[in-house]
Amino acid sequence: MLFQRYRRGLFITAFLAAPVTLYLVYVISPYIQAFYIAMTDWRGVTATPRFVGFDNFARLFADGIFWKAVRHNAALLVLLPLLTIVIALFFAFLLNVGGGNGGSGGLGGIRGSKLYRVIFFFPQVLAVAVVAVLFQQVFRPDGSGMLNGPLMALGVEPVGFLSNPDVAFWSVLGVMVWQAVGFYVVLFSAGLASIPRDMFEAAQIDGAGRGSLFFRITLPLLWDTVQVAWVYLGILALDVFAIVWVMTDQHGGPDFSTTVMAAEIYRNAFSYFRFGYASALGVVMFFFTVGFAIISLRLSRRERIEY
Amino acid sequence: MTDTPQNITRRQLLRGAALVPVAGALAACATPASKAPASSSAAPVATSAANPFGVAADKPLEVWIFDGGFGTAYAKDIHQPLFKTKYPQAQIKIESTKEITKVLQPRFAGGNPPDVIDNSGANAMDFGALAQDGQLHDLTPLLDAPSWDDPNVKVRDLLDPAVIEIGTYDGTFSVLGYVNYIFGIWYSQKAFRDNGWQPPKTWDEFLKLCDTIKKSGKMAPFTYAGKFPQYLYEPLLTLAAKIGGPEVLVNIDNLEDGAWTSEPMKQSAAAWAEIGAKYLMEGTAGLDHVQTQTAQNKYKVAMLPSGSWLENEQKTTTPADFEYGMFPLPDFTGSDKMPYGTLHTSPGENFIVPAKGANPQGGMEYLRAMLSKKAAGDFSELVRTVSVVKGAGEGRQLSPGAASASKAVTAAGANTVTYRWQTWYAQLKDEAIAATGELMTGGLTPDKYLERLQKKADEIKGDSSIKKFKR
């Protein structure tokens, strides 16, 4: 018996060894090393960095640009999930139940909903870098821009979507929402599909309109999925990098108006060659992310509705 | 099923074997580790007049070229063959990348950098960081070596003194600029001729010309690479130096108190803010250098500030009869400290020899070959630009833009200015880029603009972790 158990342990170990090894080498160990590098003045090229204690962290508190980046991340953390979930829920509802009694008699989506579902998913298929370059062209400030072209044809002053520091952040947010919505439409559609049809029918027989169908039936029964979406989108908002770095002028500009934590870490490491300081920023970002994870796990502990 | 002890040992062995690389990987991941220095001088070769650095004839040489506006053909077709004529046994590997930092920084951290690097472009490695860590080979022996062509002429005498000044870090000459970048305002000689416009000699004439062009309705007067406002702080600083003398820029480089908020800087910032408010092509703030330069090629805008690489960069979109021309910054007042024709010139395409490379002697020899008359002349012709080697362009067929820039340099004589803060202090550069964009779009007044840059300069001055330089 004992031997059997030993064999089983060995079997499991054999399977886990490879992934755990990879995880240790490429995830855990760099994290630990980052904590060490954060306490040195390493500039990336020497083999013998000097230990400076908490100097980098002290410096970080006076770094106006980094805190600007933190504020942008915080704004994204609130706005990105909110907008994405509202829009995605609305679309998912329309695609699945919003059509009311279709010609066939059952509950269904609005006409052409299958086609829309595919179209909504398109942005998700594109690589982030592709999206960023694409939107650089969409946002071009001259007549060749997809948005400014028509505006200028109508005689309106062109909008500096990426070149006006007051507008640029909203452009970034818009692109992120545009890219995220498709996936959550599909996610919520799947959630809706698992809600028993007769619940909707019963509500309809009782005279519920589209509005009350959505708020009384759909939303409460989808609450679990919405929470998952919130956590995913929150993580997306905290570690946003590629969209900002590729799409915006001066990597997070103009005038640092779109910069985010990850962009500042990259800038400090690879253009200022302050790897020690960049690691310190990374450590701070690590604690922000862990903090967010703990809070969201706490808040999402809620009883499930069984059906 | 029977389990023999052998079976278990085999598994343990496998498991043990799997864990060995883990330990190695954990130790070598991101943190730098000092290694025993590479045996760079296995058997030192005697130096001689023909071989001043003691190059081992058969030692391989690894060269990395920045694949930017000049491409890489000049290294493969001009420099490598020339080096080969002298060292036919040496294996030369020419590599190229647009991402110098990403590719080569890990090699420095790992202690095995290549032998020659063209550390240029937007993703170049920070010279300050390299110098601070003693990663740059002292190139003084190169200056004192006889030139490739003539044993009686030292390399030092071939070079513009600015090359040596700019390439000196901590009192050691360690960076060789190969191209002489000449900055000015660029225009189409054809467009100016056809419309009867004249390159302006004074700032008033410049403003009048902008007005004339604007009123003509044919094109916008002025633009710059709005996404990269460093294209605009260049003429702003040069104009300030013209008004107040080269020390305006020296003070900025040395992080002196109030260097940015000096009177000449205020005049220049106000002058350029006016251009930004009145004469810019629509949408300038959101366009990059290629888009604005292409607009100029399409005769949508008359003038833009740039450097002598412009003509080569635009060769595919320039109409055949466009005829690039360049004029220096006009006189601001009658009492400017520096005369008309003053230019900002700066050596670029910065070549370094890493101190910890395997073959630094070969690296220096490669640079000596590059500085030969033939290599530099062929280079100028191929990439339509001006090299730092004196007289290398003589008797060569120069394109209109390169000819115009060369003429401006000759006319300027000793009246050239330069600044180095942007390569020394990358943080200050980013702040200047951000603030200059704001100045030109009206988000900052000239005074607030300079105060903001002064504040950043003071911050850097007080930050003990940033290495300081003096000129």
Can you walk me through this structure?
The complex is a heterodimer of chains A (307) and B (471). Chain A is mostly helical and 307 residues long. Chain A has twelve helices and no strands. In chain A, helix 2 (55-61) crosses helix 12. Residues 102-106 of chain A have low confidence and may be disordered. Chain A starts with a helix and ends in an 8-residue tail after the last helix. Chain A has one domain (64-299): MetI-like fold, CATH 1.10.3720.10. Chain B starts with a helix and ends in a 10-residue tail after the last helix. Chain B has two domains: 61-180 and 346-402, Periplasmic binding protein-like II (D-Maltodextrin-Binding Protein, domain 2, 3-Layer(aba) Sandwich); 182-343 and 418-461, 3-Layer(aba) Sandwich (D-Maltodextrin-Binding Protein, domain 2). In chain B, 48% of the residues are buried. In chain B, strand 4 and strand 5 form a beta hairpin. Chain B contains 20 helices and eleven strands. In chain B, strands 1, 2, 3, 6, 7, 8, 9, 10 and 11 form a nine-stranded mixed sheet that branches. In chain B, strands 4-5 form a two-stranded antiparallel sheet. Chain B is α/β, with parallel strands linked by helices and 471 residues long. The longest helix of chain B is centred in the first third of the chain and has 24 residues, at 5-28. At the A-B interface, helix 1, helix 2 and helix 11 of A face helix 1, helix 3, helix 4 and helix 19 of B.
